[in-house]
Amino acid sequence: MAQTQYFLAVDIGASSGRHMLSHMEDGKIVLEEMYRFPNGNEIVDMDGTPHRTWNTEKLFQEIVNGMKACREAGKIPVSMGIDTWGVDYVLLDADGRKIGPCYAYRDARTEGMDEKVYETIPEAALYERTGIQKAIFNTIYQLEAAKVTEPDTLERAEALLMVPDYFHFLLTGVKKQEYTNATTTQLVSPKTKDWDRELIGALGFPQRLFQEISLPGTVVAEHLLPEIQKEVGFDCSVVLPATHDTGSAVMSVPSQSDDCLYISSGTWSLMGCERKDADCSKKAQEANFTNEGGYDYRYRFLKNIMGLWMIQSVKKELEAGYDFEGRTGKEDYGFGSLCDHAKDAGIESIVPANDARFLAPASMIAEVQSACRESGQQVPETPWEIARVIYRSLAACYKEAAEEIEAITGKKFDAINIVGGGSNAVWLNELTAEVTGKTVLAGPGEATAIGNLGAQMIKAGVFQDLKAFRKSVETSFDVKTYRA
């Protein structure tokens, strides 16, 4: 009897991380959670200024802990790969040591850095050149902030690695920069599919920081570093997934059509379609769409929508004891409960969910209330009313984005595939179908981890190509249908 082949995906999001193991059984992909751990920004005081940072040392220890859990279960992977969010990076010196903190994308240091970049290249020209939407936390603005406020750090740095690339480096000692995450820097050309060296030079960023770009499916190393092998108790190869979590999530959209509308629903809602060529037109820019790199040089033509970050923030405040009048302290503020109660809360107010005011407010609850008050709408006064306002606002954003995509691409989409954790929000799925007038196909929930595993399994020959993998996702996982 052939030995079971296991593959390990380490999927780290802005609020938690998980180790997901997969193998094939009776022709289906079997998924097993081996380890889960919390994540979040840490506030660090630097010269009297608070900054949001990621604790990469703690995160890497959690990566190792999850690998140990696989060994303890007797399930040793033949390969593994790590995905995270985009835009954030680590700088390394000539000896491969980390320089300075790993800033989190919600840190305020990029304020005003867009205008400094536009002194070198106007905003419209930058979009035409890169196809990446304006977001103040993009790596290009983070590097501009480093150039302005920490020039010595950039001078000392010999390499820049995106967060998952850095973790792969700690596992193997090999520096690889992966394509899908590299595109979120706003420094990659959609024409050459490589670093825009002319742009990098014009902005004054050191050219040496940017390593050769590798595609998902590339082997980082056949072996883990000896010290890592000793600590986790096994060896395996490390294979690049689409290291940008949305890139992995989109890989697992269970559709055989090349004209598929999707929402990768998690902390962010990323709504878009796949395209063979980037659309860097003025029309796409004005609608604030991005052309992020995808598997096999596909483009994820999508819009970033604030997403479940708003609900996650509300949940956190409620569980910390936010003082709503009349609350008993016994309510269930889990995501399922919030969504279920929101359906019957009655309030019809909505807020512009994609407004920057909701990016990192001191209190999400207070910010939603203020937005309703300022616009002359009914102000939500209970947890369920707050949740209803947020869910209805997200559905309104989905409707607007769907209309924009159809107008720009000239295509008509009858259905929306929702993947990721947000696919479990039943009322939001119902609401999205109702508001957009499109059939909603919801699932799988662990889309990012599944896509991560898919890149590894295609590389290993388990699946011939992306189409075969997506067909297997469709038959292996529960996908629920919601009709308009």
Task: Describe this protein's structure.
The structure is a single chain. This protein has 484 residues and is of the alpha+beta class. Helices cover 37% and strands 22% of the residues. The chain has a 7-stranded mixed beta sheet, sandwiched between helices. Strand 12 (188-189) and strand 13 form a beta hairpin. Helix 10 crosses helix 17. The model has no long low-confidence stretch (mean pLDDT 95).
- Record the strand order, biggest sheet: 19-20-18-17-21-22-23
Q: What is the number of beta strands?
A: 23
> How far apart are the first and last residues' alpha carbons, in Å?
48 Å
Largest sheet: 7 strands, mixed
What share of residues are in beta strands? 15-25%
The total of helices stands at 18
The computed structural class is alpha+beta
Annotation keywords:
six-stranded mixed sheet, seven-stranded mixed sheet, 484 residues, alpha+beta, 37% helix, 18 helices
Present the secondary structure layout.
Elements: E1 6-12, E2 16-25, E3 28-38, E4 42-46, E5 49-54, H1 56-72, E6 77-83, E7 89-92, E8 98-99, E9 102-103, H2 113-118, H3 123-130, H4 139-149, H5 151-156, E10 159-162, H6 163-172, E11 177-178, H7 179-182, E12 188-189, E13 194-195, H8 197-203, E14 213-214, E15 219-221, H9 226-232, E16 237-239, H10 245-251, E17 261-265, E18 269-275, H11 282-286, E19 290-293, E20 299-305, H12 309-319, H13 335-343, H14 364-374, H15 383-409, E21 415-419, H16 426-436, E22 439-442, H17 447-459, H18 466-476, E23 480-482
